[in-house]
Amino acid sequence: MSAAICLLAYGFAMAVLAPPLLRRLTESEAAPRFALAAWLSAIGSTALSWLAALVALIVDIAHHRLVSMQRPVMDTCMTELHDAAVGRYGGAEQAGLLILAGLSGVAGLFVIARLGRALWYARRTTFTHARMARIAGRHNGALDAVVLDVDEPAAYCVAGKQHTVVVTRGVLTALDDHHLDAVLAHERAHLSGRHHLLLALSRGLATVLPHVNLFTTGANEIARLLEMIADDAAARVHGRRTVLHALLTLSDISDGPTEALGATGIGLTSRVRRLADPTNTSTRRRSRLTLGAATVTAALTSVAALALAVVGLALCLPISG
C-alpha cells in the first residue's frame, strides 16, 4: 500500500507544480514542438503514476486477502499503515482501510471507464462528421479537399477512416491561390501529425477530471501548440508572411465544429504575433534546451517512481526485512 500512496503523492505533486512551471517555460513560444513534448510528458507521467497506484492498490488488497498472512512482507516507512491494513491493530481498523482502498479502486476504475467513453465518443463524432462532409460536399481533386457550397469562409480538417480537409466556397472566394495553399498545408500538417489523437486524449482527461489544473490547462495549451506547429509546417513551404496574411484574412470567422482542427480556431493572437515577429536563433536554442531538460526530468522521475514502487520501496527507504 505504501507504493500506491507514494505514487499518488508523486502524481499530485506533478499536477500542482507542473502547470505554472510549464507556462513560464513556454511563454516565449519559440519552440512549440519542445513545449508540446514537455506538456505531454508532465500529463503522461501524472496519469501513469495514478494508474500504477491503482494497480498497486488492487494487487495489495488481493495479496493480503488471498495469500496466507504467515508470508513475510517487506517493511517500509509506511509499516504502521501496512500493519493496520493486514489487521494487526484490529478488525475495525483493517476493515476501514480496506473499504477506503476498495472505494479508491472503484473510483479509479470509474475514471478510466469515463475516459474510454469520452475517447470513443470523440472518435465517433469526428468519423461521422468526416463522412457527412464528404456526402454534403464535392471533392476537388486539384485541392485534394472537400468543398462545401457555403458562403461563409471556413477551413478545417476532421479525422476519419478517410481523413478529410474541408473548405467552403467562401474560402475559395476570400483567398488567392498562395494563401489558400498555405491554409491547406496547415490542415494537412494536422492530419499527418495525427494531432487529433493528442487533442482527443488531452480533452478527454480534462473532461473526466475537470478540477485537475494540469489536465484542463494542458488541454488548452496542447491545442494552442498544435496550431503553432501546423503554422510552422505551412510556413516552411509557403513562407511566414503568406501564412500570416492567410490567418489575418480568415481571422474574423469561425472555421468549423469543435471536434475539428481549423486554421484560425485557437490562439490566433499569439500565433499572429509569433509569425509577424519570429524569435531569434539564440532564444529558440535556449527554449529547446530548457524544455528538453524539463521533458527528460519528468519522464525519468516517473520511471524512477514506478521502478521503486515495483521493488516495494517507492520513495521511501526500507527499514527491515
TrEMBL record:
Gene3D superfamilies this protein is in? Metalloproteases ('zincins'), catalytic domain
What are the record keywords, sorted?
Hydrolase, Membrane, Metal-binding, Metalloprotease, Protease, Transmembrane, Transmembrane helix, Zinc
Enumerate the spans annotated as Peptidase M48 domain.
130-207
Establish whether keyword Protease is in the entry.
Answer: yes
- Gene Ontology MF: a single term: metalloendopeptidase activity
Cofactor dependency: Zn(2+)
The protein here is known as: M56 family metallopeptidase
Q: Which organism is it from?
A: Nocardia uniformis
